[in-house]
Write a structure and sequence with these properties.
With 120 residues, this protein is an alpha+beta fold. It has one domain: Nucleic acid-binding proteins (OB fold (Dihydrolipoamide Acetyltransferase, E2P), Beta Barrel), CATH 2.40.50.140. The chain has three helices and seven strands. The termini are far apart.
């Protein structure tokens, strides 16, 4: 009986730390939570700012109809791995915390390892 309880405790513990895998339309329900989002880059735009460039990726639908935006900036963007051309129409997986900007969900990419292109 003790072994069964221990096994149950371990399994529940792993589930408590597991991230949710969500779609773009579900992002609004996970604000403040770390998730893994999957979707297709339906549009993107590079902003060149004095404070540093910023790349916005619209998932599943182009702007302004998109339901979530992936924000790539700073050191992650400066490495050159993620560009508009390289990600356009690609299916991607992004890990990060959902936040709100101008009443829309977004995920700021803080580590290049947290974005992967899903090969089909």
């Amino acid at each position: 009986m003790k072994k069964l309880m221990l096994l149950l405790f371990i399994c529940l513990g792993f589930n408590a730390f597991a991230q949710e895998t969500i779609t773009a339309s579900q992002a609004k329900d996970f604000v403040g939570k770390e998730v893994i989002l999957t979707g297709k880059v339906a549009g993107s735009r590079l902003f060149q700012r004095q404070t540093g460039d910023m790349l916005l990726l619209n998932i599943d639908k182009p702007h302004p109809s998109n339901e979530v935006t992936i924000v790539v900036e700073g050191e992650v963007l400066s490495k050159g791995k993620f560009t508009e051309a390289a990600l356009q129409d690609k299916n991607i997986k992004v890990k990060g915390i959902v936040s709100i900007y101008k009443e829309k969900p977004q995920i700021k990419l803080d580590n290049e390892a947290n974005l992967t292109v899903i090969e089909q």
